[in-house]
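Repro case for the chain-ordering regression, as requested:
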Amino acid sequence: MPPFLSGRFWRAVFTRTRGERLWAGHRRTSGGPGCRWDALAGADVLRAEPDRFGGISVPLERFRALDRLDAASFQKVLQGAVFDENTRKILVVQDRNKLKNMWKFPGGLSEPGEDIGDTAVREVFEETGIKSEFRSLLSIRQQHTNPGAFGKSDMYIICRLKPYSFTINFCQRECLRCEWMDLHDLVKTENTTPITSRVARLLLYGYREGFDKIDFTVEELPAVYTGLFYKLYHKELPENYRTMIGMD
Amino acid sequence: MPPFLSGRFWRAVFTRTRGERLWAGHRRTSGGPGCRWDALAGADVLRAEPDRFGGISVPLERFRALDRLDAASFQKVLQGAVFDENTRKILVVQDRNKLKNMWKFPGGLSEPGEDIGDTAVREVFEETGIKSEFRSLLSIRQQHTNPGAFGKSDMYIICRLKPYSFTINFCQRECLRCEWMDLHDLVKTENTTPITSRVARLLLYGYREGFDKIDFTVEELPAVYTGLFYKLYHKELPENYRTMIGMD
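-- result from build under test --
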């Protein structure tokens, strides 16, 4: 008999409960000084409550929201291109587990509700021990059917960060190597991914001819009605275009 | 007794089945020539099967994947700024249901596995009847706790599109009005959202001083190992920086 369901709740009686959890949803967060593994809060149990039929009901609101979300969602990976203009050095890592010997920028998955720049800064710190601040958004990659993206499209965002600490203390579990490399060497090396190489060239272009040539900078703007604010990223707009004074 | 669960399956016996569905997860897709309402495939029933205890089991694999996805996901909304360089006109709509009298760019939710530019082109066509092609990525908005984003952060991406049809046939259910507006008028109007106004100014800047000043253009690059390709968006890189020939 197909179990078609009705009502606001999915009504189910659990015939066996073993007192152990179904699964402990551990999600990898990158390491560094903290180098931690977090349990995903709230993901390891399903909320249930006694119902008026003497059974147990599990509210499906959350699944419903996830189903709707499912169709339009994707995961977001941030990478931080930490570039020191004073020394022309860029922070790069080699993965321990994959892409061995390939230099790339440190980074990792965004937390829920986390700003783009905040993710990049946090992941860089956790993975390498380097403190930095957000400068701009440099590049976006969209890839479908990525094996690591839970069957979703992924969004890979590369930010330009400015370092304000310089002593590397990288996560040994995650990285094989981590170093400050001359930007020109990164542009020339073959031991890197196509995207890293491309962004290295982009950074060199910005370094030589002005970062305004490559940056999407950020600004906070008010949302209509809701009273909320959002972050808007685009090419820097000259002041006269912002105000439109004398520009008829 | 708290209903902790065990094993690969969430084992549940349904004490009542009414033969009706729990919910029909209709998701709004924008209209236009098609102007359709789609049921979200597979979202309206939960798959279940008889288990060896004489009850019904519901595989939780999918929920597990969604839980993992949950932490890193967000929804993606695309808007298309369809600008006709020959006439300096931009395609704008007014929502029927919200933001009344506020001019904005047409757009909507991305489908799973859909490219950024493809979503913008599709949504513009469905909402307004205008055919266009992708030119560039202009701006990205990140907003948290948006009421329409199922409790997730949302990612709002605005693309520059070039029209190749010009006769408006807009979705009456979705839009109150739709027209080709002089870009300068959109810059000046107060009946618009802050983000639309900002992007209108950005477009005016690009129109007057070159779209290379504002565009993130796209290129397809090969992924390492997987044999897949991905789309990479960033400021156009001059040819000498791509090849690095004679640039030591």
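Ordering looks correct now. Residues 51 and 154 of chain A are 40 Å apart (CA to CA).
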